[in-house]
Every structure is written in structure tokens, then in C-alpha cells.
Specification:
102 residues, alpha+beta, three-stranded mixed beta sheet, 57% helix
Length: 102
């Protein structure tokens, strides 16, 4: 019988020893933190369809479920980017991407 807790610790240890994976995990955490920072600005119906996407030197991507949500977020970009700047995240710019339907 395998121990899931032990498996999680082994994966975490492997991630900690790999510089590229450590950097990736750090970007994932920062992407989520950015979404948490702007979430209070998002209308309730819109917030449910927005996910934190990739973060790199070129852009931070917000993933949305449909084109209407993307259009609304694009209207809100100045306010969202201002909120990010207040938290010390002046760059990179925010990009919006519509997820393909499954």
C-alpha cells in the first residue's frame, strides 16, 4: 500500500532540487497572487470565469471562459493594472486569452 503523503513529499523534494521547476512553481504562485490581488475588483459573475494563467517576462495572462468575459476584462484593464501596480507589480502587461471550449 503506497503512502500518498510520502509521494507528495518526494515530489516536493524533487521540485526543490530543480532550479527550472523551482522557478516555474514561483511563477505559478505569483500568478495566483496577482489574481488574488485583482479578484475584489471583478464583478461576481465575471470572477467565476477568470483563472490565473502563465506569467513570464512578456505578459501575465488571464484565462477566461468566453469572449464576453474577455471583452469586459479588456474594459477593466486600466483599473486591474493600477491595482497590480499598487502591489508592486508594474510589469509585465496583462493579456487576456479565451480558453477553447472542450
Amino acid at each position: 500500500m503506497s503512502n500518498p503523503g510520502l509521494k507528495d513529499q518526494t515530489v516536493a523534494a524533487a521540485l526543490g532540487r530543480s532550479e527550472p521547476l523551482t522557478g516555474l512553481m514561483q511563477r505559478v504562485r505569483e500568478s495566483r497572487a496577482r489574481l488574488d490581488a485583482i479578484a475584489p475588483l471583478l464583478p461576481q459573475g465575471l470572477a467565476e470565469g477568470v483563472r490565473a494563467g502563465p506569467l513570464d517576462d512578456a505578459a501575465w495572462v488571464l484565462l477566461v471562459s468566453h469572449a464576453a468575459a474577455a471583452a469586459k476584462l479588456r474594459q477593466m484593464l486600466p483599473a486591474l493594472e493600477a491595482a497590480l501596480r499598487e502591489r508592486g507589480w508594474a510589469k509585465p502587461p496583462v493579456k487576456i486569452k479565451v480558453l477553447p471550449r472542450a
